[in-house]
């Protein structure tokens, strides 16, 4: 065997590294030329062999430079991390080749061949993305069918929200409590009144006209804020000693967890009004909000219950021995620790909630993804689905990534096991 | 002397296992009682019944004039008067030592924050860890944690202190610092019931010794008599093994 296989050794390091490096260079050159100039200089080989030629040449090259303890730092690093055996060598090459082949086309589609200027579909002459579509429809993607002249109301509601949130970070600790109470109990009413109007000289805008990204935010924010306390009480209820409360909680949780969200939404739109007495009318958006909130609360309850289970019995006993009753024990001792433990799970549920909001299309409410869906069927803008969904996907990713970072931040801040 | 705790024919079962059998016990104010016995003999269960962390099924437990049973409405009020120190410390890890100490006085006794902090610092001073007040439990040694737990219980200004093997989870070096704090407390006149295997401590502070085995009180005697001439053979055997 030794005679057949040429074994690279430390003694003739220079020769092998030169040879190996050359072969690797050839393999990369082949892929690069193939990708950018569409020339296949191994075309004289049988087609299948030609297709795999760079991989084979590269693998042989990597085999030649695989010399242990060569003394060269860079070489050792490459060998231990990317080239420890033949399989890893092949995987390394495959990944690099795939990146060379597919990153440039994506960049081209996104930027270099894309069209940014213009106002109509005909302005999109390049082979890449037609961002004109997103530009022209941007207003609709953000505000839905909300009348243009009234959009300042949505803007000011959100600016107010951000200002309040930002301010609550900077105000002294004593005032923080009041800020939070205002944010959770007073602000939503002000915000909703501002957007829906009908009073104070503001024109009434029915919820059917709400839509786009602002609706995504409204639905997510309401559901997030409301599902959390409900989930908390359900989690406590499920662990209660009182059978009536325990079984009600279990029943509630299992009922909502067992039904798909889309069904729940559909029921809220179609079935729910049938049970109402004639003449009463609950707004579609409110019905949807209640449905999503209760649905997510069931999940939240189980996440929080996980945290409650994880706490040692001693914490309950210590709290009791200090004379705390059920509520003080839970709100001062148990929940603060349990919630901290399950921040990742809570963040998970919140992210899922935000990404579930597009489902409200089943009742005719169009948030961001729904508006994209609508815009792409416009006769003047046919064939723009890709741009629209990529845009919507990016926006959702940014929102979710921000939430995820925030939750990690919170975990670190609340950690007392320093 | 005034009786502060009275147990009459107390029985307790965990499912079919009988943990306490016909326990009769009286504790006077300022009395110090040390309970010893092999593991599984019901020592911990007995003192946990006194503040109803465990429920007894039969007999009477009277603490400071109030009978403890499932009908007791203000069990929290009684618990607030009975401090407890646990084997595993059970400090609240999400709060600083100072907050651990002030939480219950503020929320249970409705004490103003400032006053609660003064009392907390006084008690932390007493167990000699006032300099650690701002730290979190996870940053302290076992001995310091147990002394914090003692300070936390004292902040409620209890009439009775229960100790459930307070030094069993500690390194030998740290046992002494905790026991020293307990001796100080005993000298200050606190009513104490201590479950422990530290016989040196028992000899120093206990007025009465109780030896338990298989859920029964086998022997109750003045400390000196208990060690010098135990009556029951079971007690003699136990003492010969641990002394």
Structure description:
The complex is a heterodimer of chains A (418) and B (243). Chain A has 418 residues and is mainly alpha-helical. Chain A has 2 domains: 13-112, no CATH class; 131-146 and 205-417, MetI-like (MetI-like fold, Orthogonal Bundle). Chain A is built from 17 helices and 1 strand. Chain A starts with 12 loop residues before the first helix and ends with a helix. With 243 residues, chain B is of the alpha/beta class. In chain B, the strands form 2 sheets. Chain B has a 6-stranded mixed β-sheet with strand order 6-7-8-3-9-10, sandwiched between helices. In chain B, helix 3 (97-107) packs parallel to helix 5. Chain B starts with a strand and ends with a helix. The chains are: A mainly alpha (418), B alpha/beta (243). The A-B interface holds A 312, 314-315, 317-325, 328, 332-333, 336-337, 340, 414, 416-418 and B 51, 53, 76-77, 79-84, 86, 88, 90-94, 103-104, 107-109, 136-139, 149, 152-153, 156.
Short description:
Chain A is mainly alpha-helical and 418 residues long. Chain A has helices at 13-37, 47-64, 73-82, 86-112, 131-143, 151-170, 173-196, 212-238, 243-257, 261-270, 272-275, 284-310, 313-321, 326-341, 343-356, 368-375, 385-414; one strand at 366-367. Chain A has 17 helices and 1 strand.
């Amino acid at each position: 065997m030794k005679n057949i296989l040429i074994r690279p050794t430390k003694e003739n390091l220079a020769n092998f590294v030169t040879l190996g490096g050359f072969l690797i260079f050839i393999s990369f050159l082949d892929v690069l030329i193939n990708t950018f100039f569409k020339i296949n200089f191994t075309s004289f080989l049988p087609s299948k062999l030609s297709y795999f030629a760079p991989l084979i040449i590269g693998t042989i090259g990597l085999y030649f430079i695989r010399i242990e303890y060569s003394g060269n730092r860079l070489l050792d690093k490459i060998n231990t991390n990317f080239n420890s055996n033949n399989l890893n060598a092949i995987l390394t090459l495959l990944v690099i080749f795939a990146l060379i082949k597919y990153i440039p086309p994506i960049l081209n589609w996104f930027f270099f061949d894309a069209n940014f200027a213009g106002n109509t579909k005909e302005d999109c002459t390049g082979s890449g993305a037609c961002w004109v579509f997103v530009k022209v429809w941007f207003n609709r993607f953000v505000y839905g069918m909300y009348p243009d002249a009234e959009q300042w109301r949505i803007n000011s509601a959100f600016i107010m929200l951000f200002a309040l949130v930002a301010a609550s970070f900077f105000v002294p600790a004593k005032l923080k409590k009041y800020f939070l109470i205002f944010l959770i109990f007073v602000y939503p009413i002000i915000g909703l009144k501002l957007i829906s109007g009908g009073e104070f000289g503001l024109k009434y805008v029915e919820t059917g006209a709400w839509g786009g990204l602002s609706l995504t935010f409204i639905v997510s924010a309401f559901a997030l804020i409301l599902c959390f306390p409900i989930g908390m009480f359900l989690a406590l209820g499920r662990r209660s000693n009182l059978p009536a409360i325990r079984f009600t909680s279990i029943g509630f949780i299992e009922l909502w967890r067992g039904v798909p969200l889309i069904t729940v939404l559909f029921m809220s739109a179609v079935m729910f009004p049938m049970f109402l007495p004639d003449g009463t009318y609950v707004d579609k958006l409110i019905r949807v909000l209640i449905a999503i909130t209760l649905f997510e609360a069931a999940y939240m309850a189980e996440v929080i219950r996980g945290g409650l289970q994880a706490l040692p019995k001693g914490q309950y006993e210590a709290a009791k021995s200090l004379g705390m009753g059920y509520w003080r024990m839970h709100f001062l001792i148990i929940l603060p620790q349990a919630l901290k433990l399950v921040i990742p799970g809570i963040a998970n549920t919140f992210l899922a909630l935000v990404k579930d909001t597009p489902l409200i299309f089943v009742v005719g409410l169009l948030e961001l993804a729904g508006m994209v869906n609508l815009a792409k069927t416009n006769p003047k803008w046919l064939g723009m689905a890709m741009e629209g969904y990529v845009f919507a996907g990016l926006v959702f990713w940014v929102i979710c990534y921000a939430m995820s970072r925030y939750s990690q931040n919170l975990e670190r801040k609340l950690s007392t096991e320093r | 002397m005034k009786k502060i705790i009275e147990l009459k024919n107390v029985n307790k079962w965990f499912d079919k296992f009988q943990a306490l059998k016909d326990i009769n016990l009286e504790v006077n104010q300022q009395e110090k009682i040390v309970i010893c016995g092999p593991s599984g003999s019901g020592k911990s269960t007995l003192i946990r019944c006194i503040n109803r962390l465990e429920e007894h099924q039969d007999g009477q437990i009277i603490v400071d004039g109030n009978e403890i049973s499932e009908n007791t409405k203000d069990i929290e009020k009684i618990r607030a008067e009975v401090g407890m120190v646990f084997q595993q410390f059970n400090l609240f890890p999400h709060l600083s030592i100072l907050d651990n100490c002030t939480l219950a006085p503020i929320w249970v006794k409705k004490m103003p924050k400032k006053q609660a902090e003064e009392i907390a610092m006084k008690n932390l001073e007493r167990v000699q860890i006032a300099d650690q007040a701002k730290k979190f439990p996870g940053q302290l040694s076992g001995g310091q944690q147990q002394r914090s737990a003692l300070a936390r219980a004292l902040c409620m200004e209890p009439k009775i202190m229960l100790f459930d093997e307070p030094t069993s989870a500690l390194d030998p070096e740290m046992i002494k610092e905790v026991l020293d704090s307990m001796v100080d407390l005993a000298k200050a006149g606190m009513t104490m019931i201590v479950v422990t295997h530290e016989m040196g401590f028992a000899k120093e502070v206990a007025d009465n010794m109780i030896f338990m085995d298989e859920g029964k009180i086998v022997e109750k005697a003045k400390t000196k008599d208990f060690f010098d001439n135990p009556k029951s053979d079971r007690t003699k055997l136990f003492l010969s093994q641990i002394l």
